[in-house]
Design goal:
Blueprint lengths: L19 E3 L3 E4 L3 H12 L4 H15 L10 E8 L4 E7 L21 H4 L18 H12 L4 H14 L1 E2 L2 H9 L1 H4 L3 H7 L12 E2 L2 H13 L1 H6 L2 H12 L6 H5 L4 E3 L2 E5 L2 E5 L6 H14 L12 H16 L8 H9 L7 H4 L2 H12 L16 E7 L5 E7 L11 E2 L2 E2 L8 H7 L12 E5 L2 E9 L3 H15 L3 H5 L4 E4 L7 E3 L6 H9 L4 E3 L6 E7 L6 E4 L10 E3 L1
Parallel strand pairs: 17-18
Antiparallel strand pairs: 1-20, 2-10, 2-21, 3-4, 3-11, 4-7, 5-6, 8-9, 9-14, 10-11, 12-13, 14-15, 15-19, 16-17, 19-20
Helix pairs in contact: 1-2, 2-4, 2-5, 5-9, 13-14, 13-17, 14-19, 14-21
Amino acid sequence: MSDSRDAPRGSPGKPNPTESIASRGMVTGTTGSAAIEAGVDMLRQGGSAADAAAATALAQICLAAGSWVSYAGIYTMVYFEASTGKLHNLNAGFNTVQAEDDPVGIPGPNLGDLGKGGLSAFQYEASGRTALTPGFMAGIEATHRRFGKLPLPAILAPAIRYAEEGFSWTAGHAQQYAFRSSVLSRLPHTRSVVAKADGSPYSAGENFRQPALAETLRRAAAEGISEYMYCGAWAEALVAAVRADGGRMTMADLRDYEVIWSEPTHASYHGHDIYSHGLPAAGGVSLAEAMNLAELSELSRKGRYSQSPEALFWLAQIAKPAFVLGSAPVADGAGLQAAIRSLGIDLSLPSRLSKRTSRALWDAMRSGRLPGIGAAAAVPAHSDSVVAIDQWGNMAAVVHSINTVSWGSTGIFVEGISIPDSAAFQQHAVAAAGPGRRLPDPTNPGLVLKGGKPVMAFGSIGAGLHIRTVGSLIGVLDFGLTPQQAINEPSIGCFEMGSIQRLTVGSKEFAPEFLQAVRDLGQDVIESDPLRGYWIGIQVDPVTRELHGGSIRELAMGGRAVGY
């Protein structure tokens, strides 16, 4: 195999950001340059990687105005503790509502129309039943208690400052507001948060302040997150707002919420150990399974996916089980499930972590015993990722998410905080989890170790986060790319909404003849930017111990890697 780092032959060319290099500590994130600067400031103050990641995530939500990420969303983290050499997994995902006795009846969009309507299908009657018990703030508190070095008010301070003083409203914010204007004008409190006093929208370049949010975060810092947001006044306001729209959440849902500390998932790959988000989540399982399949199929011998149509074809194939075996509905779902059952393979989440199960699955795939294998209809889920390394060598890989489209379709805000409608497209997953239980999530933040020493931390977001993560890890571990070089590779994404056959790639990032070669191998490909996956990482040089960070620039409010 080659370790060539030349420009990808499959791409007609695009701007390639350069990597960031530092010696002591670094933070990279998918969005929010000011948020990432806040995280680095935590490191300069003597904070840990956990402090930096938490402060960055808190500020990212403020700078997003609660649009694609929310303080009422989820927080997942894989953490390397340098002093002990131990790895930890934090699951602060959504819990289902205890009193929800008819989850299949939760209002939502018609997923069967996704292929026709795309994101516009996510318009439906507002209902408080679409709200789930949030974990983000509980995750921040649990992270701080276990790994924090700075006081909690210091971690919250940057987000409070950005909310109080404001920031420049961007064209991206304005576009998202226009997309959700009818939703955001439904309730008086929401209008007071996201629009001017006269009800008109903000224009790009105007200063956007969030005084209600600043007060909420200030009270959380003073009273404690659990006391205020899960047992106190904010929790009561959330329950009242959700129930006013027909929801079934009660104070018991919030008081009973607990984060889950567990073992990360593990996969060995070409001499490296890859650790990701642990059970009961699904994202880490899917990543371990895909890396097992990549090793079994000798995928890297086919070349980099940006240079070899055969490599991109097989990368798509090994990514498909994550979608087919997931809980989201798929086209011809009954036929696919029947084909899967006929294999006689234990495909429970714990079993899928083993190489033995991956080998049986690979044998079925290459022998054609899964003729209809394809992808789940992708459901838009907005997120942010943060990766941080501190001066002691602690490493944090975080993904946090609102898990819906731009504020959702209910427009509920509580004391300046947006409330997602994330049950609206996960009715069957809610039913499978049961009342008051943790909902599995597909996030896959992770760490790579070699010989017990950490060499990289990574995270990913977007509809195509799974396949982009697999492709980027192969690029770094097998072809010697730096994180930034892996990020600069042509974009790959999820499988097209409403279809189980079409892989999406970034528009104009692959040459037409390259895509045709992939189609000739049997994998249909279309160009679709909204379904992309985005990946970030920080790598530790094994000789110099320098930190090499990669970031994404093409997103609205794009992130950066900052070190010191």
